[in-house]
UniProtKB/TrEMBL annotation:
<dbReference type="InterPro" id="IPR015421">
    <property type="entry name" value="PyrdxlP-dep_Trfase_major"/>
</dbReference>
<dbReference type="InterPro" id="IPR004838">
    <property type="entry name" value="NHTrfase_class1_PyrdxlP-BS"/>
</dbReference>
<dbReference type="InterPro" id="IPR050596">
    <property type="entry name" value="AspAT/PAT-like"/>
</dbReference>
<dbReference type="InterPro" id="IPR015422">
    <property type="entry name" value="PyrdxlP-dep_Trfase_small"/>
</dbReference>
<keyword id="KW-0032">Aminotransferase</keyword>
<feature type="domain" description="Aminotransferase class I/classII large">
    <location>
        <begin position="32"/>
        <end position="387"/>
    </location>
</feature>
<keyword id="KW-0663">Pyridoxal phosphate</keyword>
<dbReference type="InterPro" id="IPR015424">
    <property type="entry name" value="PyrdxlP-dep_Trfase"/>
</dbReference>
<comment type="similarity">
    <text>Belongs to the class-I pyridoxal-phosphate-dependent aminotransferase family.</text>
</comment>
<keyword id="KW-0808">Transferase</keyword>
<protein>
    <recommendedName>
        <fullName>Aminotransferase</fullName>
        <ecNumber>2.6.1.-</ecNumber>
    </recommendedName>
</protein>
<dbReference type="Pfam" id="PF00155">
    <property type="entry name" value="Aminotran_1_2"/>
</dbReference>
<dbReference type="InterPro" id="IPR004839">
    <property type="entry name" value="Aminotransferase_I/II_large"/>
</dbReference>
<dbReference type="GO" id="GO:0008483">
    <property type="term" value="F:transaminase activity"/>
</dbReference>
Amino acid sequence: DTFLSRRVQAIKPSPTLAVTARAARLQAEGRDIVSLGAGEPDFDTPDYIKEAAIRAIREGFTKYTAVDGTPGLKQAIVEKFAHDNDLHFSPAQVLVSVGGKQSFFNLCQALLNPGDEVIVPAPYWVSYTDIVILAEATPRVVETDMDSGFKVRPAQLAAAITPRTKLLVLNSPSNPTGSAYTADELAALGEVLRAHPQVLIATDDMYEKILFTEAPFVNIANVCPDLLPRTVVMNGVSKAYAMTGWRIGYCAGPEPLIKAMTKVQSQSTSNPTSIAQKAAEAALRGDQSVLEPMVRAFRERHDYVVERLNRMPGVRCLESQGTFYAFPSFHRVIAERGLKNDLELAEELLEKAGVALVPGSAFGAEGYLRISFATSMENLQKALDRIEGFLGS
Ligand code: PLP
């Protein structure tokens, strides 16, 4: 009895954007809210990147580009994959999109039929499941917990694969947990996948550059090169270069699939913004030392946040390997306070303590809260003082 499509009724608005919007609304009403909801770096886009965009405008680079991205940006992406990841693609295997979000949207539209299943390990980035549903396929959520470091175990993966499984999504380092797979863990998952040639793999490497480990970044295609022909490598400039508003993501994979994804994009957005593409090209080609102070700051804040959380009664938090998120368990707090769930806890923390956090349920994991430390130490200290005060009350 509604005029809206079943497709749109089956999905929800992005909960992380909703928390941030709600915190901003309360702030506008004059409430003192510390928002730890944001999924974006608090740093400014580096100057050399901005300059490239300003130059693009001045030079009149303000028209349609090729749907799949400018040759210059695509070449920079090819070289980035070769240099950083030892992955060797041709430009025809690369697609530039309006953020990493559109890369995954295009992939699902190009790949999935009704009834197809997509394995999504939880806790997951909030958009995977809804984008799969928009493609009229079925997310098959595999739950992980703190004991496995929020990582899917090979036996779990094997048990989740059915004849209808078309895609597995891996995201490492992970939003929202910050956990990253080791090469050995990826090898073990690859071993399972070898027995199921119908399963494609999407490796979402969006947080590749925000990594705290000694070991260099690896994805499943690095560890299992034989799986590369059925892997789509997704990445973007949003998080690494503090460029969330510019909306440039990119991916590389099998040419026929990339062609099909380009067709979807050609009938939805056309090319990503010409000016932003020039900025992204500059980001990838420029002096990468701008990343270092940002990663160092994230790491210092991570250490501070995790240490303080683990001193709070009823709270448990794992060390992350990357990203700017921590994903502490509040299961005991919820039980001891007689709260219904993490949604109610987040609500109380917002109302009574003035701290905005995203409930774990949004990521398919009840009983946790996601804390973004993409904010100043001063804000983090204030927020943690308030959470501590709330827990003591
Ligand atoms: N993948 C993950 C894991 C993310 O956390 C995000 C953003 O939150 C994206 C992809 C999409 O990024 P973009 O802003 O480039 O669309």
